[in-house]
Design goal:
The structure is a single chain. Helix 2 packs parallel to helix 3, helix 6 crosses helix 7 and helix 6 packs across helix 8. Strands 2-1-3-4-5 form a five-stranded parallel sheet, with helices on both faces. Strands 6-7-8-9 form a four-stranded antiparallel sheet, with helices on one face. A two-stranded antiparallel sheet has the order 10-11. It is α/β, with parallel strands linked by helices and about 230 residues long.
Amino acid sequence: MREKVIVIDDDEKITSMLRRSLTFEGYDVVSAGDGQEGLRRILEHEPRVIILDVMMPKVDGWEVCRRIRDGGIHTPVLMLTAKDEISDRVKGLDMGADDYLVKPFALEELLARIRVLLRRKGPEAAPQASNQIQYEDLLLDMDTREVFRAGHLIELTTKEFDLLHLFMMNPRRVLSRDIIMEKVWGYDYSGESNVMEVYIALLRQKTEEYGGKRIIQTVRGAGYVLRGES
């Protein structure tokens, strides 16, 4: 059963990114563009996690958090804000928030915090993933951050490892350029536009170094996929 998450934020760029990325991760996502709408949707949809921006029109995030706690709703709340003052974080926690993340944030950190909140609030949350992932003769170890192909150690940089990890978590699934950029480089990345293509070329070179067949395929007009050659 898909866990339901609500995103309440008046920044359409962030809302769209989170809706797309969380759906990709297997969550059922509801969104709202202001605090007033968010309060209605929390009551209608009964989400398992609330992602809540602070600075919003009509009703701000602090007030949304206060109202749901006063109303007896104990759903975990992760607050997002551009503010990084200790007093702001304390205020959010005092209002009943469970966690606090400052913008701009890394998508992987937000996803990790959601998983923690789900584990904290109920036994039905998904179990943690195995520390090792294997696809054909490729083995990735999350604990040691080592990668082996047919028993050969492959030396990868941090970004190369993260990129390969994304592919191995989604074998045979076509990943769009937008999804790859958001999950590996972050939604607010503003560097070289061809960085992803460069890293995929490097990853192919390294994983094929010992004569292994190509397993990171290009799907024209759609993106890339981890699968053996047909």
